[in-house]
What does this fold into?
Amino acid sequence: MAYASTTDTRVHVLGDMLMVTGTFTDGGTEVDYSQFLSTVYAAGGHLTSITDTGIKVNGGNVAAGDTVLTVDTVEAREHFAAGQTVYNSSGTRLGVIASVDSDTQITLAAPGLTTGHANNENYYVMGANKPSETLISTSLDVSIDQTNSLILFECGNRSATSTASVEDGRWWILGTR
It folds into this structure.
């Protein structure tokens, strides 16, 4: 997958401040802000893609409204935490985790699953999957290189064997001309 980026500019409501925004696909990017800004005050970004946790539905189909889910393949406690939102492969929000009861069971907050799904379907999270013990590093880091007038948006890899990031996201830079 090839990296892609788009850029647009908007004048900020605070007089001479300017906000430069854009999107990226398939990993991070660097943005040369010298044509828009002379000074950068802040920069940020966020991921907009979902990430497979490797955790699957176990023990048959689950129905809308179910709150206690049996899972398998990898340990739930390493990938999930209370308060985290869970998605399916199409990006449909399934619910919010109330508790991670064991390596093989999670409980969703009421009203439970928003939609049913079949045995062995994977659970996803929005943005980076941040397991507690792993070589996976899919978070987004934003750095300002003032010497070269660059903002660096860097995503990690989804596994120890992957060679490219596939994350998508949006970024912004705030500064003056």
